[in-house]
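Long-time lurker. I teach an intro course on protein structure, and each term I like to show students one example going from raw sequence to a predicted 3D structure in token notation. This year I'd like something fresh instead of my usual example. Would anyone be willing to generate the tokens for the chain below so I can use it in lecture? Attribution to the forum is fine with me.
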Amino acid sequence: MTEDFIRLNVHEVGILLSALQLIDLREENQIAKDYGSVPALYNKLYTVFEQMDTSGTVLRNDVVPSF
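-- Reply from a regular --
Happy to contribute to a lecture. Here you go:
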């Protein structure tokens, strides 16, 4: 297994946390079988999220969604 490091801002980490909360039990079991525990990943990301600086970030509505 290798590790890659990517830079994510507080909003991107928040999106990942929200997505992990919406995974249903069947999907969670499949992910756990293939990749590992979803709750463990959520806890790891949440720990990072809590340490991130949110003071300088402001949501702007001028971004066009890619979907």
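Some talking points for your students: The helical segments are 10-21, 25-34, 38-51. The first helix runs from residue 10 to 21.
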